[in-house]
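For concreteness, we quote verbatim a single protein encoded this way:
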Amino acid sequence: MMATTHAFVGMALALPVLVIAPEFAPAAFVAGLVGGLAPDFDLYAGHRKTLHYPVYASIAAIPTAGIALFVPTTATVVLAVILAAAALHALSDAVGGGLELRPWLAGSEQAVYSHYHGRWIRPRRWIRYDGAPEDLALAGIIAAPLIVFGEGSIAAVTVALLAVSAVYVLLRKHLATVAERLAGLAPAPLHPYLPERYCVV
């Protein structure tokens, strides 16, 4: 799924906070955004493995959510939302396409790495690839309540990210070719640091 879809999922975790403890909602929305995006910071260093923890993040998120529920402070709520968003990000990568430059070709059986199991989880391809039309549809569905119920800045950020998502979907397949060409132009000393899926030789 797109990074923006993951961000919306994380931000949506703050909606119950908005209802139950609105004083923590602004921090929770930011935490959801950060937690939803953070796993993809490994994009160029072992993507979907280095910072993706579908099992361990899920295990950590459960007691943290309990602590936030019974001892609500800004710190406990932020930590709970960040961990839950990061866990959902890693888990939901398994329902998308494989880890490859052109995932619509369905050539990879690596969706996300489970450190607990010591192996890659295969892609389910319910969302065929990041930037697929159904990915944008899902992003729109999740973004809708954020736009309706989020305060001004939350709604504005959501609309902006949704616009970025739409442009990405339009350009997605072309971007694979651009990335491949740019990687081919990179100086040889940089080749070991480029993702394998860019097929740099």
Q: What stands out?
A: The chain has seven helices and two strands.
